[in-house]
Amino acid sequence: MTPVRALGAFSGGLDGMLASRVLMDQGIYVEAVTFDSPFFDVQAGKTAAAVLGIPWRAVDFTSDIVALLFDPPSGFGKNMNPCIDCHATMFKRLKEIALKEKFDFIFSGEVVGQRPMSQNRGSLNRVKNISFTSDILLRPLSARILDPTPMEEAGLVDRDRLLDLNGRGRTRQLEMAGAYGFSHIPSPGGGCLLTDPGYANRLRTLKEADLLSGDNARMIKFGRMFILDRAVGLVGRSSEENDKMLEADFGIQLDIQNVPGPLGILLGEKTGKNLTLLTAIMASYTRAQEPVTALSNQNETFTAERIDPAEREKYNIRL
Ligand code: SF4
Question: Does the pLDDT of residue 291 top 80, yes or no?
Answer without folding.
Answer: yes
